[in-house]
Write a structure and sequence with these properties.
310 residues; 7-stranded mixed sheet; 16% strand
Length: 310
Amino acid sequence: MFEALARAGVSPAQDNFDAPSVIREVCAGPLVLTARALRHSPSAPAPGVPLREYWEAETCGTHYVDAEKFSKAYFDSIAAHRYRVEPFVRDFADFDRWRGKRGLEVGVGAGTDFVEFLRAGAEMSGVDLTKAAVQHVEQRAAAYGLPSPNVLQANAEQLPFTNDAFDFVYSFGVIHHADNTWKVFDEIYRVTKPGGAIKIMVYNLDSTQVWLKWLHHAWAERKWRIGPGRGRRWALANFQESGGTKGYTQRDIERELARYAHSDLRFSYDADRVQPGEPHELLSRVFRAIEPARMRWCLMFELTKRAVQT
């Protein structure tokens, strides 16, 4: 236990170390972790609402911000929160790598990563299912004095681009919401040049968060007979953001990717950082410190498209 506390940045030698409080926090662990797994933006639609309706109502990442909508302070706050809570996004996106390269972001959301690619010198295009997201990117570019962005409202199952058009395609936390995730990947693969990079994040079906979500809703809905395999998928589809949300394991992805010519496939896992002042902050830090990497919420994979030999 003390090793986990050290990894979480807590030392029994600290003057303010309160052992009884730590013990109470640890005993309350399952309840607090379940609360973290179930937390939901109060301004967003209820989980399970159809895809387009859900994300038109609240663009991803915007519910943490109190500043005037579309002001520079609004966009600054969205970016500050994103990269504070998910600092690993910068490493995964590797923005500076793409200077002078032609890129596509599938699912631009509030435009936070899209603008970082532009600032790094990439020649970017973007698509999103919603008008709200397209408007966010357009307004964000205007707020920062950037050229008018090439962002289209489109269904990613039918991307409006020619074959082999992009040096890289990036999509973070998007394609698991699609009606047909692997149809979207077909399109991503199609528009990527041979030798180009594909970088994607999806929800990890094996994550602690998904297990807790299933346990909670199986109890609440009396769905124990479904079992953990189908049950975890059921919980995501019905209680995680828009209806039909999916999760994947590394094995799922490897199996699907066997159909595509590729190389340099790499996987990584991470999760949002616990923030100072959060309820039960200490407990959350301890459990995050001992959580196995493969049980973290974000499952990221990247690969190189290989030319097909004819």
